[in-house]
């Protein structure tokens, strides 16, 4: 069997093609007897084996990234998870997260399943993730993803890069509206609303809150004929605490979020939002 000499230039070329480490590339080229396509397949198989071996690992670290279109009307947010903070802070990991986000925005992809089946260069994103696992040696995954559209889409990412929000507003972008959108993003990350407004709260959650309030009232010895009234009052309190537009604005407790927005521009409101949290 003829043995091909593997040059440093060959190793460097494969490294640039795949992003794998120098030693991994040299081993793959040696095993493939200099065949680049076979070497790439060897590296992919290595990633698949590592992925399978780490399938049950927890991924509580990672990074949240956002991308917004040039016209400011479409945006995506995603969370790329990993096992350790060391990897989460790595330039290569963050760059890959940015690639995933760009892929989603460029193709206006609506959900994570479609994102993973879309090609990133010559392979699907799902395959690219497996290749990254082979390079990094940790389980990674796109665990949360959303696409929003609106007259103005704004993003906010907390300083730890593990919490972020994407907000769609109903009026065209201005400096003041962008600033208000950022403040709403901070509100979402800090106060974790369950929905946009009262009408968006699911029937299941409404029933749960009413039942909990009635049960508490019973335990407090309240008469049966007062239970509905007490429960409805508790539900109104829940709406104020848990729906974005009705929450107290964190930067000025004298206003609701809806009032803050209306003060920035008459009729300004949030039409949709999405929050991504890792860990």
List keywords for this structure.
279 residues, Helicase, Ruva Protein, domain 3, Tetrahydropterin Synthase, Chain A, 11 helices, elongated
Please provide a brief summary of the model.
The protein is α+β, with helices and mostly antiparallel strands and 279 residues long. It contains eleven helices and ten strands.
Protein described:
- This protein is an alpha+beta fold and 279 residues long.
- Among the domains are: 8-53, Orthogonal Bundle (Helicase, Ruva Protein, domain 3), CATH 1.10.8; 61-149, Elongation factor Ts, dimerisation domain (Tetrahydropterin Synthase, Chain A, 2-Layer Sandwich), CATH 3.30.479.20.
- It is 48% helix and 21% strand.
- It has a 3-stranded antiparallel sheet with strand order 1-2-5.
- Strand 6 and strand 7 (163-169) form a beta hairpin.
- Helix 2 crosses helix 3 (36-53).
